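FW: tagging you since you asked about this chain on Friday. Here's the raw sequence from the shared folder, copied in full. Didn't touch anything.
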Amino acid sequence: MTAIPPCRWCPTPGRVLLALGWAVFLGLTFGPVAGLFAEAAARLAAGEPEASAALVPSARQRALLGRSLALAGGVAVFAGLVGSLAALALLRRLAHGRGSRLLRAGLLAALVLWVVTPPYLHALAGMEAGNWMRAALSGLGAPSRLLPDLPGPVSALLAQGFALMPIAMVAAAIGFLSVERDLIDAAMLLGPGHRVFLRIVLPLAAPAIFAGSGAVFVFSLIDYSTPSLFGLSSYAMEIVAEYSASRAPWRAALIALPLIAITGLVIGAVLAMLSRGAPAHARMPGRALRHYRPLDALRRPARLALWLAVGYGAMILALLLGSVLIWRLLPGLVWEVRHDLARTLVNAALAAGLALGPAALVAGSLAARPRAPVLRALIWLAALFPLAIPPSLTGVGLAALLACCAPDALRSAGWLPALSHAARFLPLAVLVIHAQMRRVDPLLIDAARLQRPPGPARWLRIELPLAAPGLAAAAGLVFCASIGELDATMMTAAPGQGVLSMRVFNYLHYGVSETVAALGLLLAAIVWTAAALGLWLAGRQG
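HL: got it, structure written out here
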């Protein structure tokens, strides 16, 4: 009797669950914005002059877009160059045996704490550093003109560049560690170390380095909060201004179209580069890079970049932790902002809970067996393209969707910011869980499939424990990022239901004071504590 082959497209519980995960992911990330563009397309099809005028950027908007691109490009170059050199110096120290396991764990924790600190807190630290240096000069009797204010574009570039530098550092380190040792050993027989580094190591690590710089470019371009603190208008701010002036969400979508197109092209280019030069699994520096002489290339600039990064991190800690007055203000301030603090923590917890399930299912589909290259590229693009959407537009879309389709009690419930946070940070959670899944030995999964049939028992006893570190890290990342999130929160918070990030940002527009610094310390302490707890849990689970 001939066996009937299994149906390839028949629904199974696993396929249904996977489809549900993708549906929730796409609905959260693309749904609100898709509704805005659908309304804009209908108005364009109807021939409305207002829609046609909004589709074409004005001369002022084109100039604003050019300035925003220049700022984001400068931030990407600064963070990519300094971050790559600092990563090179770190790897060189670890390759020479100058780093214990505890030191490596501390470095990883420092990078994570650095990257989850909101950019406007980096701006606060820079402003406070300038005030301290001027006060020190005045105490010495020197005129304040010896330390003039930096121009707004330079200040914004430095604030965003330092805030996003850990992304470039981690990407560069992965690229350097992924270069095959055999290639380096063979090349070292034919030429000196610096030539091997420039002609072999650097080209092979370039896709990861450019990926980190591309991510920095995208995050800088869609951020309007940091430039606005230094008196700079940005194209991302134009979206908010248009919606505030016209109260027409579809107009904000048309204004955002050039920004989405540019950031989407950058994400597509990064994926294309990584697909052509995908790094192998990174190895620990102590084993793989012992006696790695090409790392001696660019030793002096790399050491300078590392000390610059270390000095900046020490400055942030000193400014936020070193003022006695800030610590005196903190207890009373915590009581004063207790309601904002409670809403901040609840929103962050809700966002982490909403994002974890869809992110795990999408990451599992990305880590499945290889598909056709075109299909795999499209799936990755669908998973990462939400990063190209300005968070303020996501907030506008959610607010507009609920305004037309939800009752008043639902709109005023206060959970809309959590929904916007989950939509914004879902792709990052997918990346974290996918990275953990790639670390799992495929032989363990194959052995589990032989021993246990598919079902709840295998999932609970085998697959869930293997994925637990990635799930914990993803939940912690979404939680920490949601605490400091500002752009989408400003568009979705109900009147009278502000959060801590909004209060800090609003106070910063009136200048730096001890109260603002204390609020910044409170916000940073929450983010750092949550990140440290997430790292500890992920470490305990593997």
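FW: The chain has 25 helices and no strands.
HL: agreed, and The domain at 58-135+143-322 is CATH 1.10.3720.10 (MetI-like fold).
FW: great, closing this out.
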